[in-house]
């Protein structure tokens, strides 16, 4: 018999939850939050491009890199010809610098592979009618780790 179906285990579990309602509620909340986040990731259909694929899209399909990091980090070094547009600007609909790229590849570049602003920015751009939005897998950290060129020219 599995321990999870053992009547003694279920009784102990029920007693634990009744004695520790705040802690159990907190764990349940965290679990639900993680499930919701994972569901959003799976249903958003935002693809990640490797560096090679992204560079190919920019060079051969009139694509554009959109660096969503802060102006300060952008000024320290960015991909040549990248447009700096923060998540806050995208959220506010201030996308005039890339408006004409709605049918071209738009690759959002965050700080690293865990940058949620790149993912959320890509979701917003899709909602705003951009057809070929992806994120750069690994972000600028991966770009730096591959010793690829950066510039601080605007």
TrEMBL record:
Q: Which Gene3D superfamilies does the record match to this protein?
A: Rhodanese-like domain (3.40.250.10)
Mind telling me which residue stretches traverse the membrane in this protein?
A: 20-39
PROSITE patterns in the record, alphabetically?
A: RHODANESE_3 (PS50206)
Please list the residue ranges annotated as the Rhodanese domain.
59-152
Q: Which InterPro entries match?
A: GlpE_sulfurtransferase, Rhodanese-like_dom, Rhodanese-like_dom_sf
The UniProt keywords, alphabetically, are: Membrane, Transmembrane, Transmembrane helix
This one is known as Molybdopterin biosynthesis protein MoeB
Species name: Anaerobiospirillum thomasii
Classification of source organism: Bacteria, Pseudomonadati, Pseudomonadota, Gammaproteobacteria, Aeromonadales
